[in-house]
Amino acid sequence: MSEHLPVIVVLAPLFGAVIVGFFGSRDRRLCFPIALTALALSFICSIGVVHHVATVGAWDYFVGGWESPHGVGIQLRADGVNSLLLLAIAVVALLALVYSIRQDGEKDAEKSPFFYVLFLLLCVGLFGITITGDAFNVYVLIEITALTSYGLVAMGSSRRSRVAAFQYLVIGTVGASFYLIGVGYLYLAVGSLNMADIRAILAANPEIANSRIVGTALVFILLGVWTKMSLFPLHGWLPNAYSYCPSGSANLMAPLVTKVSVYVMIRILFSVFGLGVITENPGWSELVVLIAVGSIVAGSVMALTQREIKKMLCCLIVAEVGYMVGGTWLGDAGRWGLTGSMYHILADAMMTSCLFLAAGVFAKQFGATRLEHLSGLFRRSPWVAGAFTLGGLAMIGVPPMCGFFSKFYLIRGAIESGHWLYIVALLGSSLVNAILFFRIFEIAYFGEVPESSEPFEPSEGEGATPRRYAVWRTAPLLIAAALTLLLGIFNRPVIDLIRGTVVENTGIVSMEE
Amino acid sequence: MENSIHSYLPLWACLSSLAAVPLILLFRRETFLREAVTILAGIAKLSFVLAMLPIILQGNMIELTLFGDGSDGLVPIVFRVDGLGMVFALVASILWIPTSIYSIGYMRGLKEHSQTRFYVFFAVSLFATLGVAFAGNLLTLYVFYEILSLSTWPLVTHHQDAEARRGGRSYLVHLLGTSIAFVIPAMIYVWVKSGTLDFGGQAILADTDLSYVQGLALLLAFAFGFSKGALMPLHSWLPSAMVAPTPVSALLHAVAVVKVGVFCIIRTVLNIFGMDLLGGLGIDLVLCWIAAITLVTASLIALTQDNLKRMLAFSTIGQLSYIILGIALLTEHAALGSILHIAMHAFGKITLFFCAGAIFVATGKKQISELNGLGRRMPITFAAFAIGAASVTGLPPMGGFLSKLYLVWGAAEAHQIALLCAFLISAVLNGAYFFPVVYRAFFLPEPEMDAIHADGSCCVSGWREAPLLCVLPLAFTAIGSILLFFFPSTFYDLASIVLHGGVANP
Amino acid sequence: MMEWMKTTIVPHFNFWIYVVIMMLGLWAAIGKNNLIKKLIGLSIFQTAILLLYVSMGVKEGASIPIVDETMGEAAVDFMAQGGGGAGATAFPINPDLFANPLPHVLMLTAIVVGVATLGVALALCQVIFRDFGTLEEPEILNQIKTIQDDV
What we know:
The structure holds 3 protein chains of 3 kinds.
Chain A: H1 5-24, H2 31-55, E1 59-62, E2 75-78, H3 82-99, H4 103-107, H5 111-131, H6 135-154, H7 159-190, H8 195-204, H9 206-209, H10 212-229, H11 238-244, H12 247-273, H13 276-279, H14 282-305, H15 309-328, H16 336-366, H17 377-380, H18 382-396, H19 402-417, H20 420-446, H21 471-489, H22 491-506
Antiparallel strand pairs in A: 1-2
Chain B: E1 4-6, H1 9-26, H2 31-57, E2 61-67, E3 77-81, H3 83-110, H4 115-134, H5 138-156, H6 162-194, H7 212-225, H8 237-240, H9 246-273, H10 275-281, H11 284-304, H12 308-328, H13 332-363, H14 374-377, H15 379-393, H16 399-413, H17 417-443, H18 450-454, H19 468-486, H20 489-500
Parallel strand pairs in B: 1-2
Antiparallel strand pairs in B: 2-3
Helix pairs in contact in B: 1-2, 1-4, 2-3, 3-4, 3-9, 3-13, 3-19, 3-20, 4-5, 4-9, 5-6, 5-9, 6-7, 9-12, 9-13, 11-12, 11-17, 12-13, 12-17, 13-15, 13-16, 13-19, 13-20, 15-17, 15-19, 16-17, 16-19
Chain C: H1 2-9, H2 13-31, H3 35-57, H4 73-80, H5 101-132, H6 137-146
């Protein structure tokens, strides 16, 4: 059994989805336990995978035993980077699942099974993208992720969610198609879809690697994943999609979907094209880092103008994506930027999860959707406020929260490679985050507890559920906040694992000059 | 000659106050237990620190690696206790106990709200302070520096009114803003440049080929980035943080927070650049002059203040610059004086703050101009105030005299006559802003007693001291200032260890 | 000009056609106001990519990749061994005889994905029409401005 762990991670939610679809529609009460079991199984298996990677090394798994010489088998590959991401996905998904125990059921009896089916399928997509070693598989799984996201966004109670879902669908499909075109060109050039295989061919044949067709493939793939990860200026779909969807699904999508797309970009650069693309083309690197800087600036500025909590958080996602894209493309010899980006994928997944869970609790428990509504929060609910504070501090990048350590490595990479503008943007965005979050903390800390807060007016929409202290909403939030802190304090094992993989795969240049 | 000893003592010393947090929360309804926990944690912390003292005095260092190791050029989280860290840890942990006792008197006396939160964050900030003191590399130092900034924010803004909001905002903008904008890039630049951030061994940048401009930029980034040191023009958070309750001002803004700032700057000079490199590049004088200007200007501003706590705040800004200037002079005696002044000023200034708070608790007065004749009603408080003022000014027989003597000696040694004059002018100014307060209190006639009679709480003559729990600590620290004049050897030995790696021969 | 046509366009006419179709689709998907027209554009866009892949696998004179007796004994034996197990030697059949099946198989998947996307999109259109009473984007956006419910 244990030799099949990598595939069970993906299959557990898939079968879970089928079973929920089959039994859940008969008895709604079955949905949650089934989904929980499936994700818990994934969680346990991903722990196993991480353990194996940490102790033994990278793990190649061939689905159905079709080994690669035939070129038709699907390879799964777990290494120091994606095994941790698998674990992060499992954790975030579990938290989001627990958070959403009853909300959809309470409001609309019919929705429940569908919600769980889509939720689990989304997890399948995310797990799959993360672990697969096949470039075309990534496309299919991206689309699985995307299709389920459209559904989840459209489940939002507001009419706007449907329009947001449609816009998301159009942009998302175009993005995925760009990725598909890129893979097509790559296949034309090298005749293989297995990532390791392509890497070997490109490394052995520099004339292919430097050909125009491979370059075109790279550009299309990048355009595709950038759209998916909402890098500026391709970010337009994200704020609406994530702020109008039900908070149960926002908790899953906002932390993970963009992060997994960033991971795809790193994986493609790392194990398909090779980092030579970055180091040998300083012009490209300059350009992409510039785009990333644009993304950071745009995200921060947009966030400053928002008064809605969820919208503000969505804008911050755009900025955070800029961090990671920029860090990946720094091209410094010590690979610190890459290390920082990979760590930031995990860190950002945890802190975004924490913040979105908090935003969900605000909306459900206090009917608070705008910054002003949080007045007196520290008195009304110190634990929720404290957890939100931890998330906010992580976003600002204050040690010992995880957000600090990713910046630490990202800036080291930027200094080594001389991308000063990126450093300015990174620090500037930290300061903007400080303003954003301390603005909220001030409102929550100094503001009076609103008199009328007790029976708050249920508006059309999510607030319609009765306001009641719900442990299944608060507990995931507290766990997420604690994890944000722990991931920061115990960052070294994570960094060590990531750097082990980076060193193994890219042949780091010695960092002592 | 220096041995490093592996021991968990620094960790326990740090954690003893953090461990108090859950207990304080647990006993939030039982005020007595809650306060007992705070004091017990203080005693535990002090005993751990004292247990390390003989080890350090023998010329050893204590090392403890918490997370990670130095492989692959990565930076671990390390505690390393050396002489400098010990000086600071000793001062902070000794003064926490009287401050805790004082807080009880003060907070009860004024019936403050949210006292549990107050004690919790107080304990957290002491945890961070000792973390800074024991930090074995720049990353560890920075981590605790930021924890300290954030954990003191709820203390500064304790009153939760508009003024506290303004003060808190200024506090954060200065402390968090500068540390993110300046210290992070400077720290990582140092890391890139030298491949390590470790304070052990020789100075980090000693072997690197920094140019003048690079060196200057780094030095300024650290000096202003650690803006807890309140160098002008980044000093204005300190007066606005005086909205905090007085125990907070006393411990944090006369001892822990601001001393963390100067401590970091001393670390920058001694362990990041090293005296040789700074002198070699000739950038030490820039820091000297910034400190000297701050020194004189702050003293002049203090002269004009009427609010007692604001006056003390500006006095603190000036005294911090004594320490910075002392270390930046790069001479042996100036550095010795600078390190001694951390301890001497701490005892003197905390006494002054305690007095200000005691006056407020007893009479509700905050302005210097209202203090006429109060000395006869509160003789202990004002006697302590006089002792503290004398110590901070640098008069014998108070501890402050010793440190200032060394500072002036050091300035003479460096042949910086202008800077020597700055020391002397400022000392005169210190006297000029402190002693009118004492004079008013003891020698000017008391105004008509309407205000006091109005609440009918008091008899016409006789003592009207603040609660005992307020008066005891301030008497204790005042006596401490005097004792430090006669028995400075512990701090003196520690400072010599910092400079020579061993106890100097007397 | 003719020379350029001969060297660049004619040998790769399949790519040019796919590019033109794709751009048409993309333009419609982004530029049109009617949601259904957008979807039509999106479908055209996706189909163009299918064409790219399908044309990749085509070879002149090649047929479908099915091995039967007409290929000779060696080929049949080779397949009988399970597609060349552990003991198999070189592939005994001339690959030029077959179209490359892999892109075609991939496109089966892509077609399914496309159909699924279209299905979801049409369902969304239906809901949008029910909610807003129109499928014209500007009108929908106008109505959205007036919605007060904050999520």
